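Example 9 (inverse folding). The structure is encoded as follows.
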């Protein structure tokens, strides 16, 4: 018998035995097994359309990118950053992006960064440590920005995927500095010809290494992104994302209702909550807001506002509950610090300065501000002039105009007169954020600190009469407290969470005592998005899509 026949005979015997055993097996009692249903498969595909009312004017990598949510999201989606903003409650947990892990030296001066391997730019060129080294001088080695957002003095490439960064003073080992999550890594092979002036690069192709690549950009109209198939990291579920610009909030809301867009990059007006809640294809959710409304005092101009008694009396004379009810229809809360209440660094025992006109009058009486001429307005004990100030706001900010109107009505009850001036937004911003020394007296402004642990830059707004020492751009109040200045520097060197909290608590106490700005209210973000096509939305402080929240864009998927 040849080998082939022997094999066939053997196979036949085995088949016969198996067939005879089947009835015996069927008669045996069956073992109980838990059947795990298959996980629901997430669908890939589709185009996510997002509505904006402020657009990125060009693709030039300059400081203007950070002035709009559009620009920030472009940097987060098209480019890789060192790390990602984390979601609550894990604000202080390192979430890797291009920097996968890191170690710090014992003295805290040197960090060794281990980079993602296999990443490529959208034109196919590999991403290496050379790109990190090339990028550093333009975002991180900038004089004047080394106070809180700790910068880098020296880099050393170990290999293609390992680099050491060094600072002459201790880097914090509590968390990576804030810029890890908002400064994009630039392609050396694209920008090197422009190394002496990065802003001169038109960057029309916007070659990045992020999860999306640029498909088309029309300035003042839209930005069209498509998923990058060769992305090294976690890929998005949608095929495309389109940022659409609308001239008004009204036209953008109409686009949401019609299904032209899927989500807003800004808050729904409180007056429209009930209308949109009635739409079965639209979800409306209240989430903590990003914006903090303040009255900013100019402490440079020679007015009684230089007296902290006047500033405190003004805050006690403002009925913030009334502002919440009348301006925000209840969708806001009072607040007391630049640190969000969700942050474990928020000081829980700060003075609340709740509305108390009797206390305000008592403070002003004790400081010598008496109505000496009987006109109902107090007088400066030094000059004899009425206690009267101009309150500035942007005419384009309807909530600020309403707040200003209410404050103008409230403060005469404590003998202070206010002249409200609503001016065009460009003029307002030029006065507040690049202020001529005596360009204003009081101003209503909204500021958006980022959530922990990346809001450290915010303290530069009260440091040492400007981060550059001249009041320009930062510190619109021209505030200067030596201990506060010292603490902003120490914050960037904290070696433990306990040490960081100690500095943060003291900074908040100083601000609450000195009041270079009067903290008013924190509007809630009224999140609104369609539910008929996509699911998986991720709400963060400031809503499902914001200047630092790209989680929804990465996580939403077809239903």
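The amino acid assigned to each position is listed next.
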């Amino acid at each position: 018998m040849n080998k082939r026949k022997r094999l066939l005979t053997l196979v036949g015997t085995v088949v016969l035995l198996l067939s005879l055993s089947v009835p015996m097996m069927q008669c045996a009692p069956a073992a109980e097994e838990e059947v795990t249903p298959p996980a629901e498969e997430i669908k890939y595909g589709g185009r996510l359309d997002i509505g904006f009312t402020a657009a990125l004017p060009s693709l030039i990598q300059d400081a203007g990118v950070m002035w709009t949510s559009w620009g920030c999201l472009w940097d987060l989606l098209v480019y890789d950053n060192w790390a990602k903003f984390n979601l609550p409650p894990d604000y202080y947990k390192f979430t890797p992006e291009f920097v996968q892990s890191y170690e710090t030296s014992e003295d805290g001066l040197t960090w060794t960064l281990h980079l993602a391997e296999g990443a490529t730019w959208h034109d196919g060129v590999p991403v290496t440590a050379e790109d990190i080294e090339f990028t550093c001088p333009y975002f991180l080695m900038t004089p004047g920005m080394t106070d809180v957002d700790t910068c880098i003095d020296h880099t050393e490439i170990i290999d293609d995927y390992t680099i050491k960064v060094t600072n002459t003073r201790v880097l914090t080992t509590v968390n990576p500095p804030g810029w890890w999550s908002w400064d994009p890594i630039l392609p050396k092979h694209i920008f090197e010809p422009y190394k002496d002036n990065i802003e001169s690069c038109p960057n029309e192709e916007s070659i990045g290494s992020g999860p999306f690549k640029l498909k088309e950009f029309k300035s003042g109209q839209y930005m069209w992104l498509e998923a990058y198939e060769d992305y090294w990291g976690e890929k998005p579920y949608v095929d495309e994302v389109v940022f659409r610009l609308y001239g008004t909030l009204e036209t953008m809301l109409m686009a949401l209702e019609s299904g032209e867009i899927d989500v807003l990059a800004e808050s729904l007006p409180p007056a429209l909550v009930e209308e949109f809640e009635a739409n079965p294809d639209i979800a409306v959710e209240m989430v903590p807001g990003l914006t903090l409304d303040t009255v900013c005092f100019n402490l440079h101009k020679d007015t009684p506002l230089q007296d902290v008694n006047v500033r405190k009396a003004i805050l006690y004379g403002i009925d913030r509950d009334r502002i919440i009810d009348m301006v925000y229809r209840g969708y806001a809360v009072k607040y007391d610090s630049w640190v969000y209440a969700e942050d474990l660094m928020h000081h829980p025992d700060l003075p609340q300065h709740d509305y108390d006109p009797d206390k305000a009058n008592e403070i002003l009486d004790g400081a010598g501000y008496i109505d000496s001429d009987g006109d109902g307005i107090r007088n400066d004990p030094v000059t004899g002039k009425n206690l009267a100030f101009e309150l500035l706001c942007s005419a384009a900010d309807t909530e600020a105009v309403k707040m200003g109107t209410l404050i103008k009505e409230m403060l005469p009850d404590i003998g202070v007169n206010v002249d409200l001036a609503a001016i065009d937004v460009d003029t307002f911003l030029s006065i507040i954020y690049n202020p001529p020394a005596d360009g204003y007296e009081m101003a209503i402004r909204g500021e958006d600190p980022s959530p922990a642990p990346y809001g450290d830059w915010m303290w530069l707004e009260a440091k040492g009469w400007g981060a550059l020492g001249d009041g320009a751009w930062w510190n619109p109040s021209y505030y200067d407290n030596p201990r506060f200045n010292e603490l902003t520097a120490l914050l960037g060197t904290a070696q433990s969470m306990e040490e960081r909290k100690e500095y943060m608590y003291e900074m908040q106490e100083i601000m609450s005592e000195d009041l270079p700005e009067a903290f008013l209210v924190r509007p809630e973000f009224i999140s609104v998005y369609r539910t008929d096509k996509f699911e998986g939305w991720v709400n963060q402080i400031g809503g499902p899509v914001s200047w630092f929240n790209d989680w929804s864009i990465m996580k939403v998927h077809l239903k």
